[in-house]
Amino acid sequence: MTERPHPGVPPQRSPMAELPLETERLFLRPYGEADAPHIVALLDDAVVADFLMVTPLPFVAFDARQMVKAAWRRLTTGRGFDLLVCARDGGPPIGSVGVGLHDEGSRAELGFWIGRKHWGRGYATEAAGRMIEFARGSLRVSRITATAAGDNAGSRRVLDKLGFVEAGRGERTVESSGEVRPVILFELAGVDGR
What we know:
Elements: E1 21-22, E2 26-30, H1 36-43, H2 46-52, H3 61-77, E3 80-87, E4 95-102, E5 107-114, H4 123-137, E6 143-149, H5 153-161, E7 164-173, E8 180-188
Parallel strand pairs: 5-6
Antiparallel strand pairs: 1-2, 2-3, 3-4, 4-5, 6-8, 7-8
């Protein structure tokens, strides 16, 4: 008889068994309830909220708890992998990176954010690059897309460094202000043979 894994431990062949993910400087791990105050400290920032476009402002403890629950729901249902970005030398989270799975898992939409005091150190590029490796290898996605606010030069630079190319333009309503703003749609070149 096959032995069942301990409750809460993913099966060996599950992509969840590979978590946390690591890079040279970073540790990418699932969200936890204790992370809520750190998430508030990072996202209750008008500049970050403006670029993310999907977070309310003010961003309060309730919002962080909802974010933690949503990340776990996507992770446990196989609809996505949202991970917190932490420095390998310890300390609280500095941001997040993830992929939402679409089209029966053949397409992943990459998303990332880094708290403003950690900008300019290459963390977003490093974390997103590792998430792309995970999506291609372990999740076997054939197409990876991303969206960035039209005026978010930092995120556009990250996507460019990772090999994304512009695939279109659109508009999105900013949750914190209600303003409709332009967005740029990106696709990772070379994933599905393009």
